[in-house]
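Entry 14. Ran structure prediction on the chain below.
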Amino acid sequence: MDAFAAVRFAVGTGFLLVAGVSDVRTRRVPDPLWIALGSIGLLLLAIQLVANPGDPGAWALLGSAAVLFYAIFFGAPLFEHDGFHPRPIRMLLFIIAAALFVYPAATHSSAGSPMPQGLLELYSMPAMVLVYQWFYRVRILHGGADTKALIALGLLLPTYPEVSPFPLIGLSSRVESFWRIAFPFSLVVWVDAAVLFLAVPVGFLVRNLLAGDLALPQAFLGYRARIDPLPRHVWLMEKITERGDHVLVLFPKRDGDPSPEVARLRAAGIDRAWVTPQVPFMVPLLGGFLLAFFVGNVLLGVLPFGG
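Output, structure tokens:
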């Protein structure tokens, strides 16, 4: 493992461990943690570019990623619940980020030279800032902290780390160059975390089997709990409608005050109801980070084009 890879591994593990503890305790991870992680990632890349000068386009991509990253946390957004708000400074910064994003490709195109592999991989930094935000908006990612964590990890690890003899699951030379561009390392972390997260429904099923509460499909999604008091960090899967019907909601809305729903259930004589816990994703994300470093993309173990 080279020095920069070792530092990135230590920093990523440390930050995700802190995030995991916070997520388990409060189901929240403060923004300053992700701001610090992303900033360290940008700083590490800047140090690498100074120590090993290369294509100047790398600095442009670093600048583009930095503008897009800090815009998540600072300044009012262009789009709010009441529509579009033209904010000249913010719009100018986005134009600068777009120009910096285009600069390396335009420079190499005008010179008639292909972009080097390393520069192509660095395109993932600004690109994945936007991709992960889009994932959040279309509900592929369900938590703001999950989204910010993956964005920050994309800045910390813009390219695949050199950790020979790892990862155990390698890439075929036929697809390695393309795969490293099309499937950035932070995406590998997320995929591995998602695979680990699949253990959660199995855990719920085992718990419900032992408790004698095998009602499907809700037994895969949560457990039956007393509602007086309602456990912390859960969402109700049972509700009483305005017409008085008792219904099961497998995927309840994940916001709002549950007190009115609890009151209606109590009034209906229900003292135990199915709930789905707010599972802290930072824990499997830490596991996915470790897997990505030492095992690789676990999907490559079953997909025919990876090996």
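The mean pLDDT is 89. Will compare against last week's run tomorrow.
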